[in-house]
């Protein structure tokens, strides 16, 4: 993984090493792809709307969008001048973030399981959608964005008990609540994770973001789709559970920082090739200067 997956890491590169049965249909396009060619690729791959579009080297859910038609794809590409990953939308009800690594003895470990609870508004028969958004502290800051997205419904009163998922993307900034799901750990989950990442060259530590049909999926090996895999910039997202102590959260962060340090030291002791200081600075400069659109990974 480039820079351990900290930055300049192609999501498409990681996914292509995952067994086909565990991943959604995906294609990668760059800024030189003509719209007519893109439309042909979408039809050739039998994609059905809605689709998920995301930067191939993005992070923290930035610019991940659920797209309803080809016109929205065109608008999206105008905004982002960089390589894009197009994926089929997976409509499984449970989304997880599983932090996995190989320890210094090459044993597989899972130390964090976080469940994402998307932002859902429930109508009370009195308030408009605008009012419900304004009263919800998790998404009130996105009021202007949601107004554009839900123009037709914005001033309508939402009927009593009607539920509306306003954000289908699992990101803090979009109102998603992260819950501690470590009690769902199983040996079947660990075995599945090993099967997924064992063919990713250079993968030592990272988080698997995925959707499952139900909690029996790891046992039956059915109804599992990986959305993306991230490297050492991954967080143990269970720490963001609203009921989780801040002191425990800091303790868990420090623990995982120590894991990364030990894995890095172990690699150096094995004289494995790592990026030079110059390469690291150069990569950092590309990210800070937002030059990602000039990078191409195949």
Describe the structure.
By secondary structure, this protein is an alpha+beta fold. The chain has three domains: 1-23 and 92-118 and 169-283, D-amino Acid Aminotransferase, Chain A, domain 1 (2-Layer Sandwich), CATH 3.30.470.20; 25-89, ATP-grasp fold, A domain (Dna Ligase, domain 1); 120-166, no CATH class. It has nine helices and eleven strands. It has helices at residues 11-15, 35-44, 70-79, 129-135, 143-149, 187-197, 217-220, 246-269, 277-288, and strands at 26-29, 51-55, 65-67, 84-88, 94-102, 108-117, 120-122, 163-165, 177-180, 205-212, 224-230. The strands form three sheets. A five-stranded antiparallel sheet has the order 9-6-5-10-11. Strands 1-4-2-3 form a four-stranded antiparallel sheet, covered by helices on one side. A hairpin with a 5-residue loop joins strand 5 (94-102) and strand 6. The two termini are 13 Å apart. The relative contact order is 0.18.
């Amino acid at each position: 993984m480039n820079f351990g997956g900290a930055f300049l890491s192609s999501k498409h590169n990681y996914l292509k090493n995952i067994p086909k049965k565990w991943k959604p249909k995906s294609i990668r396009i760059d800024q030189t792809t003509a719209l007519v060619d893109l439309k042909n690729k979408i039809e050739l791959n039998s994609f059905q709307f809605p689709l998920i579009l995301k930067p191939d080297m993005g992070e923290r859910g930035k610019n991940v969008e659920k797209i309803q038609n080809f016109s929205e794809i065109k608008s999206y590409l105008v905004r982002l001048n960089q390589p894009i990953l197009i994926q089929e939308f997976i409509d499984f009800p449970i989304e997880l973030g599983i932090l996995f690594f190989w320890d210094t003895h090459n044993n597989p470990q899972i130390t964090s399981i976080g469940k994402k609870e998307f932002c859902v508004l429930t109508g009370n028969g009195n308030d408009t959608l605008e009012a419900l958004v304004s009263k919800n502290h998790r998404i009130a800051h996105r009021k202007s964005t949601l107004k554009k997205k839900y123009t037709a419904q914005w001033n309508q009163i939402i009927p009593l008990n009607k539920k509306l998922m306003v954000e289908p993307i699992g990101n803090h900034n979009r109102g998603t609540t992260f819950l501690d799901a470590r009690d769902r750990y199983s040996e079947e989950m660990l075995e599945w994770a090993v099967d997924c990442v064992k063919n990713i060259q250079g993968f030592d530590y990272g988080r698997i973001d995925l959707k499952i049909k139900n909690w029996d999926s790891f046992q039956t090996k059915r109804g599992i789709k990986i959305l993306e895999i991230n490297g050492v910039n991954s967080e143990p997202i269970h720490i963001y559970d609203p009921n989780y102590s801040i002191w425990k959260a800091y303790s868990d962060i420090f623990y995982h920082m120590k894991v990364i340090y030990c894995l890095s030291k172990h690699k150096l002791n094995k004289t494995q090739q790592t990026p030079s200081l110059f390469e690291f600075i150069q990569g950092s400069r590309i990210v800070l200067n937002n030059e990602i659109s000039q990078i191409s990974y195949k």
